[in-house]
Amino acid sequence: MNSLSILEARHIALGAQGLSEERPAVKIGRRHLRQCMKAMELVQLDAVPVVIRSQYLPFFSRLGPYNPKLFDEIAYKDDEWYELWAHEASIAPVEIEPYLRFNKKRAANGDTWKGLYRLAVEEPSYIKKVLREVELKGPLEAKDLSDPQPRKSTGWGHRSKGQLALNWLYRIGEVGIRRGLNFEKQFDLLDRIVPSKILSIPTPSDHDSLKNLLLRSSKAYGVATAPDLVDYFRLPTKEARLAIADLVDNKQLEEVQIESWKEKAYIAPHISIPKSSNGCSLVSPFDPIVWNRKRLDRLFDFQYKLEMYTPESKRRFGYYVLPLLIGDRFVGRFDIRNIRDKRTLHVKASFLEKGVEAGDIAQKAFDELANLAKFLEAQEVKIDRKGSFSVYLKKLVGH
Description:
Elements: E1 2-4, H1 6-16, H2 30-40, E2 43-44, H3 57-63, H4 69-77, E3 81-86, E4 88-93, H5 101-108, H6 114-122, H7 124-137, H8 161-171, E5 175-179, E6 185-189, H9 196-199, H10 206-221, E7 224-225, H11 226-232, H12 237-249, E8 254-258, E9 265-267, E10 280-282, H13 293-300, E11 321-326, E12 329-339, E13 344-352, H14 358-375, E14 380-383, H15 390-394
Parallel strand pairs: 1-8, 13-14
Antiparallel strand pairs: 2-4, 3-4, 5-6, 7-9, 8-9, 10-11, 11-12, 12-13
Helix pairs in contact: 2-3, 6-8, 7-8, 10-11, 10-12
């Protein structure tokens, strides 16, 4: 078994995610977003627009300011990407669809939310009626159904029966989702979203599907433990571990020992190790580089928690905090709010990580905040005097 230093592992991980290089010094177009998606394999969706809806941020982190409409056009107009249930609600290139069909089969057999499966078992005629309406009228929202049947309470909160039926049809692969201007779900037949040349591909075996997805996880992560690889697409653990062993036996993955890691890791054979990492990026709480908090701690010695669901009095850093990556280290974090009506990027709190010298990174940090403001079309960066980094950043305002 080969071994790698923690610094080498970081460089591999950042290179794999497209975060190790300086951003393109050209106008950002669709091909740049496609390249980013190819590196990440999928992007997690989240509707919370405190800064901007989170799915737009991973592309900003890798490319700098760009037009978010490019994302919407690729995903929801050109149908090059499609919405799926993988790392929570996510979006990925349509080419991956055959390898995730096993999830639809598992859902159809009851391995999904109990409320959805119960409705499918108890009211199959209603499910068929809803599917017929999507076929005739789609794309449509739940409220557009002729008989949505509002319900007071369900296992999914106060969703109507129609919403549950549509979500069931989505989980079993009969329908897909596009998003409207306000991120509302619009359901349509899957074959109107995913091209027929993809849907006509024979369904791989579950084992082959898992191997394909694990190789994608390995490519996206660069270096990862078995639980890391399983988590990327939220795969069934027992079956995925068998697939990992098969990939190792067939020399498609290689075992490696990482400095200070207790569990062995996996890399692609003959992987190249970048000598340095030169990027500077604010990253979303839902970015693939940080979404696995245990891996983040193990790889970068960075402890991070999204505190928006924590009572305000118990928050340590703030409501919606974006980490700052410079080079191969997370050096700070910012509680940020986008005040749209005032066109202001409000930095409510700014924190340095332990051992980081403010003078070494203050200008880079401020420039990155200015980049984010440009991306959001904000005309002002307002920095509150809260946190260990704020005093240094406030000196740069107006300079």
